[in-house]
Amino acid sequence: MTREAASRDASGARLSSRRAMRERRGAGSGIKQLPWATVIRNPFPPMQPLSADQVEAIHEASLDLLERIGIEAMGDRALDLYAQAGADVDRASGLVKMDRALVMDLVGKAPSEFTLTPRNADRSILVGGNSLNFGLVSGPPNVHDAINGRRAGNYADYEKLVKFAQFFNVIRFLGNQAVAPTDLPANSRHMDTTRANVVFTDKAFNHQVIGAGRAKDSCEIVARACGMTLEEMADRPACIGNINVNSPRKLDEHMATGAIQMAELGQATIVTPFTLMGAMTPVTLAAGLVQQNAEALFGICLTQIVRPGAPVVYGGFTSNVDMKSGAPAFGTPENAKANLAGGQLARFYNLPYRTSGCNASNAVDAQATYETMMSLFSAIMGYGNFIYHAAGWLEGGLVASFEKVMLDVEVLQHLVGFLTPIATTPEEIGLDAIAEVSPGGHFFGIGHTMERYETAFYPPILSDWTNSENWRLAGAKDATQRATDLWQRVLEEYEQPALDPTRLEAIDAFIAKRKEDIGTGEP
Question: Which of 329, 338, 332 lies closest to 395 in space, CA to CA?
């Protein structure tokens, strides 16, 4: 057979296979995506930019900082706890200094991994080891899509973002607020967003833990959604919340009391210093890592003083600023190295690791994509267990973007496919299939191919693999334009997960009472 004839045969077989695939899937059968995985694991060894000696040097410098320089803790509750544990507390300045032996004793009490079990136990996620969990964007004050433009965060858009997170299996948890619903009262919106999270999803999500009151309110709502009491839930953590250290070297009162409340309830806390090199730390990466490490350990110690063994995550958010403007930069080489090194430090203390997939672009464009890929890949290869902002982050965290959620889901699914181990069974090695085809032939129509063609390769939800002519006939849409079409389809196909009506009634009764209390000025 000539090469031309073989090419014609291959093209015909390819078209027939594609036609058969479309027929098997059926018209209008819905968006195809990767299935929910009980655990996503990283099969590769972690990348380690630091040698063992360098990790030790950062560790020792961090303990020196905690022991000789200290970190400020605001609020009597936190200061009392540090003092009771044996730390040197200066009440006038709020400065806390901790002996290195005390630090290591407390950090050693934290678990190396734990499971978060939301209201749907089938959506439980493992946090620790080589497990990977990707989260929706969290915390922006604004939202954007290509149809409605940029606007202030609002509750209607909040619901849409929550539905995106529920719809896509690769998104395994939600942030504390996918976007700030600025059209709701600031003192009670945490309950409205928590209610939306338990109604429109059955996945784990981060809680608002700015202060003990918000932390407890959110946990009360989740306990009711799970049909449990707070006491029962303490033995099966369902809630997790992130606190930020106000770098440099300040743990404010609201963050401290939020962490204390979560630990008291047996729920998980992430301690994440906000360390931007050049602004919140010195410009050198080594100094940034020392400060990140000391601040993270400081907050982790607080959770273990409250409740030894309380689940806690080592958080890293070290990147750099643009030295010309002072604006935060993400997805930079320095950010990527910090993601990897942060994982080394977390493993040094045998703790789960939180990191992020961020970018600083002002549009859903190539910059947004390559910066996100830099941060995401380094987060994965740094063994990030809890990867924040993995879908939808834009403008350095000022915007939650619908189109960016769709593009990021495609990237995340690509990465999960990349992490899938290669099978080498005799059937997969396929010597019989190789022998079946004559030299110069093709494999389109043989049994080995026909048995596997629907599942052999990763099927994209957004990539367009047609040739240029067919792409132009279909409207010549780029990936961002296709993402606009996709998020609208997601909202059409979204199905709300069932929730026991009696549990929802209990949630609504609790929220109504708490709003009444807040309205009268009660805590």
Answer: 329
Three-state secondary-structure class, residue 165: helix
User: Is 108 within 8 Å of 308 (Cβ atoms)?
Assistant: no
How far is it, in rounded angstroms, from Cα 377 to Cα 369? 12
> For residue 29, what pLDDT is reported?
54
Q: State the Cα–Cα distance between residues 251 and 209, nearest whole angstrom.
A: 13
Residue 7 banded pLDDT, cuts 50, 70, 90: very low
Helix (H, G, I), strand (E, B) or coil at 116: strand
First to last CA, the chain: 83
Q: Residue 490 pLDDT > 90, yes or no? A: yes
Distance separating alpha carbons of residues 486 and 146, to the nearest angstrom: 12
Q: Is the pLDDT of residue 1 over 70?
A: no
Give the rounded percent of residues in the chain with a pLDDT score beyond 70: 94
Determine contact, residues 70/45, Cβ cutoff 8 Å. Answer: no
Residues 271, 346: Cα–Cα separation, whole Å: 12
Contact (CB, 8 A) for 299 and 316: no
The structure tokens listed for 133 are 């969990």
Rounded distance between C-alpha atoms, residue 361 and residue 107, angstroms: 37
User: What CA–CA distance (Å, rounded) separates 424 from 519?
Assistant: 64
Which domains does the chain possess? 33-421+460-523 (3.20.20.480)
Single-letter code of the amino acid located at 346:
A
Asked whether the bond before 248 is cis by omega within 30 degrees of 0, the reply is yes
Angstrom distances, CA of residue 366 to CA of 296, 331, 371, 475: 33, 12, 8, 21
**This model's pTM is above 0.90:** yes
Range list of H helices, 356-467: 366-381, 402-419, 426-429, 431-436, 447-450
Cα separation, 39 vs 20, in Å, equals: 32
What Cα–Cα distance (Å) separates residue 521 from each residue in 187, 188, 192, 415, 442?
Answer: 11, 12, 19, 49, 76
What's the rounded Cα separation, in Å, for the pair 249 and 346?
Answer: 19
